[in-house]
Amino acid sequence: MKFNVIEIANPMDPEGPKKFYARPVHTGEVLLEDLASDISYASSINESDVYAVLQSLIREITRYIALGYIVRLGNMGSFRLGYNSKGSDTEEEVSAYNIQRKRLLFSPGKRIKDALTLLTFKKNDQ
Fold first, then answer.
1. Are 31 and 54 in contact (CB under 8 A)?
2. Are the C-beta atoms of 72 and 106 separated by less than 8 Å?
3. What pTM was computed for the model?
4. Phi and psi (nearest 5°) for 94?
5. How far apart are CA 116 and CA 106, in angstroms?
6. How far apart are alpha carbons 50 and 54 in whole angstroms?
7. How many Å apart are CA 40 and CA 70, to the nearest integer?
8. Residues 120, 1: contact at Cβ < 8 Å?
9. Distance (Å, rounded) from C-alpha 39 to C-alpha 50?
10. Are 101 and 84 in contact (CB under 8 A)?
11. Which of 60, 76, 85, 96 has a Cα at 20 to 30 A from 30?
12. pLDDT (tens digit per residue) in 73-82
């Protein structure tokens, strides 16, 4: 995996010294259609059936997340809802309006974590 080097100021001290950080260089995107094609090539299931299953998986993940479930997908990992909340002075003042910045959190399963440990990195020669 290639990376670029970016100089960034500390947001807490914009006048302070800047530091250099590694940032990933992404080579492109893989779409759901691409995954369906690749999966169908490696199996006996046709591409449209794989695509339909993946679309159904997306629908079901969002449905279960909305119901408050953590969705575990075996070796792939799990999805769960996360959000920030504004503080209130009393318990009675807390309401749904306190909830901010909703996001879907993904925790990779063992197989994906293991694959990440095998990654090698190379500075991008622009």
1. no
2. no
3. 0.75
4. -75, 130
5. 14
6. 6
7. 28
8. yes
9. 7
10. yes
11. 60
12. 999 999 999 9
